[in-house]
Specification:
The protein is of the alpha/beta class and 193 residues long. It has 6 helices and 10 strands, in the order βαβαβαβαβββαβββα. The strands form 2 sheets. It has an 8-stranded parallel beta barrel with strand order 1-2-3-4-5-6-7-8. It has a two-stranded antiparallel ribbon with strand order 9-10. The radius of gyration is 15 Å and the shape is globular.
Length: 193
């Protein structure tokens, strides 16, 4: 199973992920306590191990903004976390050529098919660190990233969901910042199954 550590915004965060090697990391460009500017994300990407893929997290962002970030080689994948519809996705795919993840909130959004590469399933309040009932996960037509309240306390249950990847943010934080020991532990748990 793959692992993504999302919400990186400090050089220390990059040092931690370079040391423990998750498959993906996330830069949040949407309004959030973990939000980064284009310039900050660029600087952090220069420090990131090239074997780790960077995902840009956007909420109803302009295609021009997303395209600039892709063209500047800041991100390798796009994660859409807003009300982006099929038309938006179609138009976005005409200007960028990187994989797209479409986030859906289980219990709130209609689980429907999008022309994307991956889905991300999250709780009703993304970024809250609250999980949802993982028994509600249904088969979808693309690989699934599972997000929402995953931490060392429930990672064994999360592994049983058999999704493509686990996406952690607040579950690897202490006092609102990434914690090296927690990152090490969850990555060890995922890699050891």
């Amino acid at each position: 199973m793959k692992i993504k550590i999302c919400g990186l915004f400090r050089e220390e965060d990059i040092a931690y992920v370079n040391k423990y090697k998750p498959d993906y990391i996330g830069f949040v460009f949407a309004a959030s306590k973990r939000q980064v500017t284009k310039e900050k994300a660029y600087a952090l990407k220069q420090l990131l191990d090239p074997d780790i893929q960077a995902v840009g997290v956007f909420v109803n962002a302009s295609m021009t903004f997303i395209s600039e970030i892709v063209q500047d080689h800041i991100i390798d994948l796009i994660q859409l976390h807003g009300q982006e519809d099929e038309q938006y996705i179609k138009e976005l795919k005409e200007v960028v050529y990187v994989p797209i993840i479409k986030a859906m909130r289980v219990g709130k959004d209609e689980m429907k098919s999008y022309d994307v590469d991956y889905y991300l399933l999250d709780g009703v309040r993304p970024g809250s660190g609250q999980s949802f009932d993982w028994s509600q996960i249904q088969e979808l037509d693309h690989p699934i990233f599972l997000a929402g309240g995953i931490s060392e306390e429930n990672i064994q249950e999360a592994l049983k969901t058999n999704v493509y990847a686990l996406d952690l943010s607040s579950g690897v934080e202490k006092q609102g910042v990434k914690n090296e020991a927690l990152i090490k532990e969850v990555i060890r748990s995922v890699r050891n199954g």
